[in-house]
Design goal:
By secondary structure, this protein is an alpha+beta fold. The protein has 2 domains: 161 residues, Transcription factor LuxR-like, autoinducer-binding domain (Beta-Lactamase), CATH 3.30.450; 58 residues, Arc Repressor Mutant, subunit A (Orthogonal Bundle). Helix 7 crosses helix 9, helix 7 crosses helix 10 and helix 8 crosses helix 9. Keywords: DNA-binding, Transcription, Transcription regulation.
Length: 245
């Protein structure tokens, strides 16, 4: 029976991976090891994805180090779908838009056929749960077909846990960072975030342009970023710019 699971706590990735694996094995009960990859990628930010996976370690490291997600045809298809779908290397050979040599590399790890559940959430993330097995792919596909609805609910529950943990971490960091920032620094960054120049900010705030630069410089240090653009992004992510004009 499917059961709702509690929010992630701050634990080692290995423990999270082991728990997801156990949940899948319990849900599917097919008597053979299941390989999975739970993948989260924000579509509006140029950042590396987050992956919890029991795929071969060397493959995951290569996938991330060489940024293979930028050419992964499974990811491309998932970005355009809301329904789950099977995949295999021969399918992508026939589709020029998804043509990639990634399966030549993944074949070395017996990753040639699997099934993916895509999810597009309210934070503009693309999340995927991909499954494959090295033992009997046909049995896995039949089991997925028999349990597809429950597997999708399990995927939703796993993703809700990820979002809950992320929100908790963001709130803690927000509180910690906010204590270090002054109201004038936040105000200066707010105006910068909506496109005002330093000169315009100085006029709005009734201060000199050099003082505006001083505030922004302090923010860059306190937020541990490299420039004003990154300061705006980090402050936005931490919900620090909810400023009333």
């Amino acid at each position: 029976m499917f059961s709702i699971i509690k929010p992630f706590t701050s634990r080692e990735n290995g423990l999270i991976i082991a728990e997801i694996h156990d949940l899948l094995q319990h849900e599917m009960n097919i008597g053979q090891p299941i390989r999975f990859a739970y993948f989260i990628f924000n579509k509006s930010q140029d950042e590396k994805p987050v992956i919890y996976s029991n795929y071969p370690k060397d493959w995951v490291e290569k996938y991330m180090k060489n940024e293979l997600y930028k050419q992964d045809p499974v990811l491309l298809v998932a970005s355009q779908k809301i329904m789950s779908f099977p995949w295999h290397k021969n399918y992508f050979k026939k589709n020029k838009r998804q043509k990639s040599n990634i399966f030549i590399q993944s074949s070395e790890y017996n990753i040639t056929r699997g099934y993916t559940f895509p999810l597009h959430d309210y934070e503009n993330n693309l999340a995927m749960l991909s499954l494959y097995t090295e033992s009997d792919p046909d049995l896995l596909m039949k089991c997925i077909s028999d349990h597809e609805d429950r597997l999708y609910l399990l995927f939703l529950s796993i993703h809700n846990r990820f979002l809950a943990e992320k929100a908790q971490q963001t709130n803690k960091l927000h509180a910690k960072v906010e204590k270090r920032l002054t109201s004038r620094e936040i105000e200066a960054l707010h105006w910068a975030s909506i496109g005002k120049t330093y000169r315009e900010i100085a006029i709005i705030m009734g201060i000199t342009e050099s003082t505006v630069k001083f505030h922004i410089g302090n923010l860059i240090v306190k937020l541990d970023v490299i420039n004003a653009k990154h300061a705006i992004k980090k402050a936005t992510d931490l919900h620090l710019l909810n400023f009333n004009e």
